[in-house]
Amino acid sequence: MSTHISVAAAERQAFGVHFNHSSRDATLARSLKERDLELKPHPIWNIPEVIDWNADPFGDLNWRAQFHMLRWIDPLRRRAEKGDTGAGAAWQSIAKSWVDWDSRNSARLKPAWMDMVDGIRALALCAGIPFMSRRQSTTPTWLTDSIRTHADWLSDASHLGHSNHALHQHQGLLVCGAVLGDQAAIALAQSRLEELYSTAYDDQAINSEGAIAYHLSNYNWWKDARRRLEVEGIEVPAKMEMLDSVPVELAHATKPDGRFVGIGDTDGGSPKYIDHPATRWVSTAGADGEPPEDLIRIYDAGYLFARSGWGDQERDYADETYWSASFGSAKRVHGHPDGGSITYSSMGTEWITDPGKFQYGSSEMRDFCVSRASHSLPAIDRPYDPASFVACTRREITDSYYDVTFTDSGYQGVTVTRRVVYSVTGEYLVVIDNVASTDECTAVQNWQCGPGVSATPVPRGYALSAGDAHAAVLFAGSAPRREAVSAQERPTAGWVSTGWKQREAAPALRFTKTGRRFRFITLVAAGFKGHQPTLETVEGTPAGQIRLRVDSGRVAEQIVIAKDGVSFAPYTADTNVNVKAPTEASDLPELDALDHETRARVFTLTRRARKTAWDSPDAATRGSLARDLENYLGKYSVPRGIDLGLRATISDLRCISHAKVDRREVLKHRPGLINWEAKDSFRTSHVNAPTASVYGAISDLPPLNRPTMVTYALGSLVLPALVTPASGDTLTVMLQTAVDRARTHLPLFQRVRFQGELGAGPFVAFADPTLDLSSELRLGWYLGDEEIDLPKSIAKAIVKLGQHLGTEKVVIQGGSGGGFAALQIGAHIPGAHVVAANPQTDLRRYNAKAYRAAMVSALGRKDVGNKSELIPRISVMRRLQDLSSQLDVTLVMNSGDVYHERNHAAPLREAAEHLDGVTIRDVSFDLGPGHKGLSNDLYGQVMLAVYERIGTVSPALSSRADG
Fold first, then answer.
1. 666 versus 341: which is more confidently predicted?
2. Percent of the chain with pLDDT over 70
3. Within a domain: residue 536?
4. What contacts 800, CB < 8 A, 6 or more positions away?
5. Which of 66, 103, 337, 758 is the most buried (most CB within 10 A)?
6. 459 Cβ contact partners less than 8 Å away, ≥ 6 residues apart
7. Where are the alpha helices (DSSP H) in 779-935?
8. Residues with Cβ within 8 Å of residue 916, at least 6 apart in sequence
9. Of 149, 177, 200, at which residue does a domain stop?
10. In DSSP terms, which residues pair with 436 in a beta bridge?
């Protein structure tokens, strides 16, 4: 038959996941010309001279389906378009061979005409039209006739599949219609695509197929579909714009190892080929891109993704803690009946995982993967309703814990309620499974460990290990029967799928109980830096509460779980801790950190309280002032821990001491820092040094002949400085980086001991009092507050201290946020030398969440907006420009930190080229991908080089040189 063909339509539609030009085209085309065909994940098959389209060399339906898609011949087409005539001839030979075979089989044999296979093949045939038309002056009839056949077939609703299979068919029909000029086919394809999209995605842009791997695939396929509509001039429905938010979901679904969490039919995979800031970040371990703002995201379609951080605040991305939970419908195309299942990764290891996909079709391992028993959840000894729905019936997300509950009625006569409590500070899970049955049943709480994890029985569960890393799955309450199963056959257990028909043995930890009403209480925790987590039940716990002492090496804390809430207490506390219901806190108005009048009132209160106490340094006055502040604070709830320094002021007035507190205890508020009565015995922090307190940054200092903590009362803030006097002409200033508020007791003075070992003369370490404004703030950049431009105050203190110690030069050192502060402070000291390692230089270019948290706490706004007077406080370049600074900068960068190089180092260098007084000296190290600090050895190497260059004189350095 004679068919009109639009070569232009074929050209503009020749794109897609399997049809885009790639760097591998020449290699793939060469293999095909040599008759080697590899359809991953299957082995290579040698194509015979006369192709047998009924071939099934591996006895695998997936291979046969791919064989008939013909997308594998597209590298030949792409090479032909670049002048490779041999590739063009091979494409024509293979395509015509298939068409001839098909024309002899009018019955439309499967799998050749299976849904999806037909649509993808239609795209492959249409893509060949442009080069075939040029090759033969016109499109051969056999090709145009086959395209017409595909269009007619795909138009018939009885041939349609569902989900992504239908998506491929609708795209095939659309392209066939465009190529044939068939407006009816185009309109039908458009209508079907719009209808299918409505069922494929919800309002949060979550795909309906139930597997993270298919969330990625559908994103790519639907982007192609949207583009196909666009290039045909068809208006794209507004709802399809939601596709642009999918990369953020995929970033949340990516574990710290850069691979997808294995929910549903997912065996690894990653979003590394998606060009989006969030996916670039998770695919490069934080070296490039930008992380999402949220640490937890709950999607109504049935996914919870949570993590401790994004590796952007002085912690390796791979070491962050990550966990997920699945809920919702058990009946999803590529989903599993896994409602309530949990995964858990931390310190570079996936301790608890999902079983994965393994294959399609039927096998014992595949049947195991899609069973309830293979997932980390409680399975009951009776059939599970495949159409069940596990609901998320509770979700309370706070700064200190996440508390979610899942309710499962999929077993007849049984209700399973799983409550998961995550400690933000401890980074562990407490999982409480309640089973209520109308008759006796047996439940097996399963914990599927990841490959490479070993499990060792301990008195209350299992100690886990993987190399030098440690974790634990431990039970509290009545003891269950327990066993660990690995590499078991018939029935299959203790296996994890790692790829197509590939698996690895891994322990499955099973806790078993029988009865009508019972519960499991289980701790899942990773040890910090090789520590083995421990669990202890608190004796005397009141009815209705669960009280556990958890020591992960990261923190040691007591978690108190009641029906209406969660609270935390010191590790050694007794049972008199009360848990407030969430409604109690909401009864109080919030202390609004964004309200100018509120901030002004609080800063006036704290400033006046310190000044009054300073002028009348007696305990009674301080006690009265503290009570007034406590009464004021008690009138408000404090969201995100932003109390604007009220608790820090109360600590100062009451001289609260943390000196004898176990360093593992969680202390988010600092101790009192002002030595009101100038007592030599005053020790309130972990710093074993006397404290000298002064009022103002330029006050006279007492004699400093030994390491001394000097605390500067600046009004609304107190600036702590640990001064170590020594002989030498250079004062070294050290600034802190971001802090882990769970593990760090403030004030923080970093690398003090090692700096002393360098012997480069006197030095002072300043802690950042900006952190006093919020107990949740990890990075304050030494911003200060509205009243105190902290870099300016610190610069004054440095000059005064240098005069006091008799030094002539100053070197200001800091990394990351401390590097930003070093540059800001150095801008105020003519002739200063700054060593900034991987610094931020404009906070607007940094992690949006961290930037906003600091801005709200420090300056009472989410962004500087049009407040031009605030820009120098967040931009090093603007500060240097405004002050016409004279500054020598040693800029130390990790070559693997693309993000900081592009967004912070490069703009600083560019600005310095136009600033006569600023010199940049570059030092580069390869520390691997991401934002990583300097080791002591590298720090020493850099600092000694700076001291040598500026001619620092000190007895210790002279001895080092002589040695």
1. 341
2. 98
3. yes
4. 697, 698, 699, 701
5. 337
6. none
7. 790-805, 817-826, 848-859, 871-874, 876-883, 898-900, 906-912
8. 884
9. 200
10. 415, 517
- Is residue 583 scored above 60 in pLDDT? no
In the chain, the percentage of residues whose pLDDT exceeds 90 is 90
Q: Do 758 and 820 sit in the same domain of this protein?
A: yes
The reported pLDDT for the residue numbered 842 is: 98
If 0-12 CB within 10 Å is exposed, 13-18 middle and 19+ buried, where does residue 757 land?
A: exposed
- Give pLDDT, residue 963: 57
Q: Is residue 371 part of a domain?
A: yes
In angstroms, rounded to a whole number, what is the distance separating the alpha carbons of residues 420 and 440? 25
Residue 899 has pLDDT above 90, yes or no: yes
The string of pLDDT tens digits covering residues 845-873 is 998 999 999 999 999 999 988 788 999 99
Q: Are residues 751 and 662 in the same domain?
A: no
Same domain, yes or no: 942 and 805: yes
Average pLDDT of 713-718?
A: 97
What torsion, rounded to 10 degrees, do the Cα atoms 198, 199, 201, 207 define?
A: -160
Residue 306 placed within a domain? no
pLDDT of residue 420 exceeding 90, the answer is: yes
Q: How confident is the model at residue 584 (pLDDT cuts 50, 70, 90)?
A: very low
d(CA 855, CA 628): 27
Task: For residues 596 and 469, state if they share a domain.
Answer: no
Orientation of helix 817-826 relative to helix 790-805, angle to 10°: 70
Using DSSP's 3-state secondary structure scheme, residue 934 falls into coil
Domain stop point among 585, 601, 622: 585
Element (H, E) at 100: helix 85-103
pLDDT at 725 over 60: yes
Separation between Cα atoms, residue 592 and residue 288, nearest integer Å? 35
**Mean pLDDT (whole number) for 685-701:** 92
CATH number of 23's domain: 1.50.10.100
pLDDT of residue 105: 84
Cα angle at 217 between 212 and 222, to 5 degrees?
125
| 887-894 β-sheet, strand order | 691-695, 708-713, 718-724, 763-766, 730-735, 809-815, 832-837, 887-894, 918-925
Q: Are residues 405 and 537 in the same domain?
A: yes
Q: Calculate the average pLDDT of the chain.
A: 94
How far CA 933 is from CA of 728, 882, 909, in Å, comes to 27, 30, 20
Q: H/E element holding 610? A: helix 596-615
How far apart, in whole angstroms, are the C-alpha atoms of residue 826 and residue 838?
A: 16
Q: Is residue 262, in this structure, part of any structural domain at all? A: no
Q: Is 18 helix (H, G, I), strand (E, B) or coil?
A: coil
Number of H helices, E strands in the chain: 28, 33
> Above 90 in pLDDT, residue 737?
yes
CATH number for position 557: 2.70.98.70
Region of residue 440 (left: phi > 0; alpha: psi -120 to 50; beta: else): beta
Domain match, 639 and 516 both? no
How would you label 183-202 residue by residue, b for 16+ Cβ within 10 Å and e otherwise? eebbebbbebbbebbeebbe
Q: Which of 558, 586, 261, 561 is nearest to 425 (CA)?
A: 558
Statement to judge: residues 601 and 580 lie in one domain: no
Tell me the average pLDDT across 815-822: 98
> Is there a single domain that holds both residue 556 and residue 596?
no
Considering its fold, how many domains does the chain have in total?
Answer: 4
